[in-house]
Amino acid sequence: MGEKVLMKGAEAIAEAAIRAGCMAFFGYPITPQNETPEYFSRRMPELGRVFLQAESEVASINMVYGAACTGTRVITTSSSPGISLMQEGFSYIANSNVPCVVVNAMRGGPGLGDIAPAQADYFQATKGGGHGDYHSIVLAPHTIQETADLMFDAFDLADKYRIMVVVLVDGLMGQMMEPVEFKEWVDVSKFKTPEWATVGQGDRKERNIITSLEILPEGLEKMNLALQEKYKKIKENEVRLEEYEMDDAEYALTAFGTVARIAKTVVDMARADGIKLGLIRPITVWPFPEKEIAKRAEQVKFFFDVEMNEGQMLEDVKLAVNGKKPVHYYGRLGGVVPTAEEIYGEFKKLLGGKE
Amino acid sequence: MNIGTNKKIQWCPGCGNYAIYSAFKNVVERNIENGKLIKENIVLVSGIGCHGYITNYYDLNSFHPIHGRVPPLATGMRIANDLLTVVGFAGDGDVYAEGMNHIIQAARRNTDITMIVHDNSVYGLTTGQFTPTSPKGFKGRSTPFGNPERPLNPITLMIVSRGTFVARGFSGDVKHLEYLFERAIFHRGFSIVDVIQPCVTFNNTYEFFRKRVYRLEDTDYKPNDFEKAVEKSLEWGDKIPIGVFYEEETDTYEKLVRGHENFFFNRDVPDITEILTEKS
Hints:
The structure holds two protein chains of two kinds.
Chain A: E1 4-8, H1 9-19, E2 24-27, H2 35-46, E3 50-53, H3 57-69, E4 74-78, H4 80-85, H5 87-96, E5 100-106, H6 122-126, E6 137-139, H7 144-161, E7 164-170, H8 171-175, E8 177-181, H9 217-237, E9 241-244, E10 251-254, H10 257-272, E11 277-282, E12 284-286, H11 290-297, E13 302-307, H12 313-321, E14 327-331, H13 340-351
Parallel strand pairs in A: 2-3, 2-4, 4-5, 5-7, 6-7, 10-11, 10-13, 13-14
Antiparallel strand pairs in A: 1-8, 6-12, 9-11
Helix pairs in contact in A: 1-2, 1-7, 3-5, 10-13, 11-12
Chain B: H1 17-33, E1 42-46, E2 61-63, H2 70-80, E3 85-91, H3 92-98, H4 100-109, E4 113-119, E5 122-123, E6 129-130, H5 154-160, E7 165-170, H6 174-186, E8 191-196, H7 206-212, E9 213-215, H8 226-233, E10 240-247, H9 253-258, H10 272-277
Parallel strand pairs in B: 1-2, 1-3, 3-4, 4-8, 7-8, 9-10
Antiparallel strand pairs in B: 5-6, 7-10
Helix pairs in contact in B: 1-6, 3-4, 5-8
């Protein structure tokens, strides 16, 4: 680790990606994440890497798809409406088994919405968005430091599983400044072009073809089963979560990203009042920590899910709890960020004056 | 007659959008008064960018759609209701980047819509990135070392895409803009006015253009010859022409396909408040 620097989240994303060996950026301007491409536009040329502002998000994701097919570490960053435009590409990338990283700084929707922080793209990120049976690994950091660390993991996971990794943040995470310490630079001179990449065939016997098309249903089913096999492996090995004050907790908050950092304050407030509240914070929202939450269902009296959407992760929490305990929900929509006091107030209502 | 609204205008002082706003306002007010336009039948569409706010400032029905998609949305409206006067406002990022395909197809199709392009060669709302009309070498927020790409020429593009009314205006010449907007609105078929609209904050080109622009209407140029129009559109240097480059009268898409028949005009669609208050 190097020295600590004070940085905006949107810039830390770019710096971390660059250190992680990202060789190409393709993207299109959109608020609230313009600082990320801006940072890339300055740093990438300095390092002999590529920054390209494309004519649209559709072009961006197809440029990413193209670069990914050559086995190059590649990234695009955007915000909700731009990410919606990329969904076709995401689906193709999934069934082509190529690695790439996509950052979504979520803003209020639907439609043009606003530019305030929101979490309403959870469904889109974790359950498809594009067509077909596919998943991407979705990482949801809650501090700038964690975002910077996860950018490295995002590229590693993408390469390891030949999959798209989404880093799901929001406008608040992008605009906020925090001290951050970056991991060591990845030595890109040691990168090897993977065997599967569509680069010059050279003296290899078999030619490489990357496609998501298989016209025979039985053949396509085989492709799908292989994908599902991969997803199973990821579910078994890559689930990450943080449990905060959960050891003796009688009640559990569930939250991700920005809301999770507010939820930590809520836990502290409750603990100060002698209430045994804890927080379960999924770091991978896909794969979702269902086993861990199921285990806590044996322990706590109820779950309280808080999000900046209409209750999207709520569905995954409910599936994991599977009816064993009540799962309550509180959320704000359209880019409104709830305060810790507000969430704590809602929580106390659930206690019904018992404590 | 005043079609202004009491909404506070949010553009920077000196923005080229004001010229477009007042020129269009004057044209529409004048023509509503003299009966050539019917206020109820005017629909405005605006794209995404600083210019997009323009529909807030006119007391006219308007529609604020998706970035880059103004031409197809305007096309949909016009084809659905032949009585409408549809005017699309869009930025250079809108129609020459995100949705360039659409403006080409709209020109070729010749639906009776008018496109007014606020062409400031910069993404103002996202604070200063280059666009497809920014010059090579342009230093902006995403091009600290200068834009490596060559700009496209919207006038040439629109002429060769068979747009039937193609003009260029300049925000520094409001009277001329009024003339162009009026002709564009009453042109039967696809019309486009690409307005050079300096962005005082991120790309202030007023001086550059003020020194160079001249009106085609002050010369003996006639906008009725396709090849001459293409040639004229390539003039860009010490002298930059503004005015009508090309004009052609030919059947519109809706005339050819449906004989100007209206789809939805008499359809009984309930108001959203009726749907929400309906007792089930």
